[in-house]
Amino acid sequence: MRLFDLFFSPHRHSAAIAKERLKIVLAHERAGRHAPDFLPKLQKELIEVVARYVEIREDMIRVNLGKSGETSLLEINIELEGTKPRNAAAQPGLAGA
Amino acid sequence: MAKVVVITSGKGGVGKTTSAAAFAAGLALRGHKTVVIDFDVGLRNLDLIMGCERRVVFDFINVINGDANLNQALIKDKRNDNLFIFPTSQTRDKDALRREGVDRVLEELKTQFDYIICDSPAGIEHGAITALYFADSAIIVTNPEVSSVRDSDRIIGILASRSRRAERNEPPVELHLLLTRYDPARVSKGEMLTVEDVKEILSIPLLGVIPESESVLRASNTGTPVAFDNDSLAGRAYLDAVARFLGEQREMRFVKPERRNFLRVLFGKA
Lengths: 97, 270
Hints:
The structure holds two protein chains of two kinds. By secondary structure, chain A is α+β, with helices and mostly antiparallel strands. Chain A contains three helices and two strands; from the N terminus they run H-H-H-E-E. Chain A has helices spanning 2-7, 14-33, 39-51, and strands spanning 61-68, 71-78. The A-B interface holds A 11-16, 18-19, 21-23, 25-26, 29-30, 33 and B 145-146, 149-150, 153-154, 157, 187, 189-194, 197, 201.
């Protein structure tokens, strides 16, 4: 077993880990590179609007700008599962939280 | 037609200035009239690497501001008649690099030189953007290490969107990957990204691989571009890269671990 560890220690594969991590982070960054500047603001305002009606957290809305052939595609995903309808009078300060 | 080549990387300390000096020296050795310009305003270092630090009188900013003319500022290399160094200012800040001024100076250089090598500062701020803005060709200096590869990817994106060629919808800046500080022994142990890994991730053509080498420090100690050192593996790797840049086919050398030579081990030579 010791001999096995010597030849196949975790350090042996650190370059493979580096490659995997780079691929993931760069895929994410390249996708964001051509995103227009307004996307974060759009996401924030959408949260504010939706939060008027249902209780929602920031991570429940995802805004993505993708491409389908020649057409740009603005994709908005709002996760509503488990959210409660908001009582209009209650907690007005939560919007945008 | 003169060609403007930027040596860039995003990340600092990966070997931009070493590569700019070696590449310019290599082009000069091949008979091309070449000037290498230091764009790192405020942190002048190319003069030291080229070994002409005591000959600097006027600099890039002086010429941009019209305080000196080009021929007063250009320093002729003492080892090769085709090679000239254009040092930068140590006292001004980066904002002194006005784009119109740089454009005018580059246009004047184009009438005198075959190749204009621009040694970019690190980062993605004004100095670095100005250095890459006018480029026809870019050499992306990258170490086989995660932060360097990521920053190179970022610089490639900036070249594609913010260079003058991009702004004018001209053919894009020609991209070349130069992998430096490569250690084949560590690669073979799985401790370092391979050439293929980096090529695959950045997906730009590979110009050369420069092995980690003691001769690079020796060259900077003495102010000699490493391409002038015939005994140096790194120097030979740079000359190969220059040949590929000029359109020649050269096999990639120094990417496999060197076999330990019994005599070398015996006499303690690395």
